[in-house]
Amino acid sequence: MAQLFRQMTVCGVGLIGGSLALIARRAGVVGKVVGLGRSQANLDVAVERGMIDLATRDPVEAARGADLIVLAVPIQTMRATLQKMIEHTATDAVITDVGSVKQYVVRELEPLITGQRALVAAHPVAGKEITGAAAADPALFRDRRVILTPSAKSTPAAINKIEQLWNETGACVEMMDAATHDAVLARSSHLPQAVSSVLAAALDTEKIGDKLAVEYGAGGLRDTTRLASSSWEMWRDIFVTNREAIAAALKLYGATFAEFQRAVEAGDVDNVEKIFNRGRAMREKLR
Predict the structure, then answer these.
(1) Spatial contact of 34 and 66, defined as CB atoms under 8 Å apart
(2) Which of 176, 203, 236 finishes a domain?
(3) What is the DSSP pairing of strand 54-56 with strand 30-36?
(4) In terms of domains, do 172 and 190 share one?
(5) How high is the pLDDT of residue 129?
(6) What is the number of structural domains in the chain?
(7) What is the DSSP pairing of strand 145-149 with strand 172-175?
(8) I need a surface site. Which of 56, 70, 167, 206 has the fewest CB within 10 A?
(9) Model confidence over 100-153: pLDDT tens digits?
(10) What's 25's domain CATH number?
(11) What stretches of the chain show up as alpha helix (H) in DSSP?
(12) pTM above the 0.85 mark?
């Protein structure tokens, strides 16, 4: 494919930003790749792995000449990061992100988009509970969804370029409005994280007599609490910026959990079975 962007600047060269940079560079759809980060050690790993051509901790240096800015930093820091960079980018620069909340991102970033620049908010629905440039994976997005949420500061040309960029990763790209995105992801992604973390917290020091309950857990406990290993820095911003949709998802879960609890307490095996089978049927759809 022909080159889409002359210079791609990735702000936050971690699992998501680093994987995208690695793929884009290998595919030749970007020219120069610049990595902006806080940790020199992580930036050094990104250089060693061939993700970026230049590493810097200076947002002005990172932005200079860039016609693609990828914001892969925590959601609540995106505006401040872009504010330092925007006037130093190319006049036709496209700004995008990889955050899993979209209404907040669009609302915060749109006022900074000036002239011929464009914003195309995006969310790759992929990830692991590990972080950093060392975790970057060129196959991370293959056959995974990437949701674009065009807004008032998006242009057809910019949308097309960002769609082509994500197509190069092997992802399945789809369009969605930001509000729908946030409501859907609150249920499909943010709720599972909350349930996993709260379950792990509930069992943390739980003892029966002198026996620590978690020491007797096997694969089921490990699988169910896997997400509890995730980065708080990232999830803090998600819980804050998508709180209304997450609260609605928690109410949905709470109602079903309460129904299950009442059935167990009442010895209502038929209702326990119904809920159990509903859960199993949903899980089968994910395979």
Answers:
(1) yes
(2) 176
(3) parallel
(4) no
(5) 61
(6) 2
(7) parallel
(8) 206
(9) 999 999 999 999 999 999 999 999 998 776 678 888 889 999 999 999 999 999
(10) 3.40.50.720
(11) 15-27, 40-48, 59-63, 78-85, 103-109, 156-167, 178-185, 191-203, 219-224, 232-241, 243-266, 269-285
(12) yes
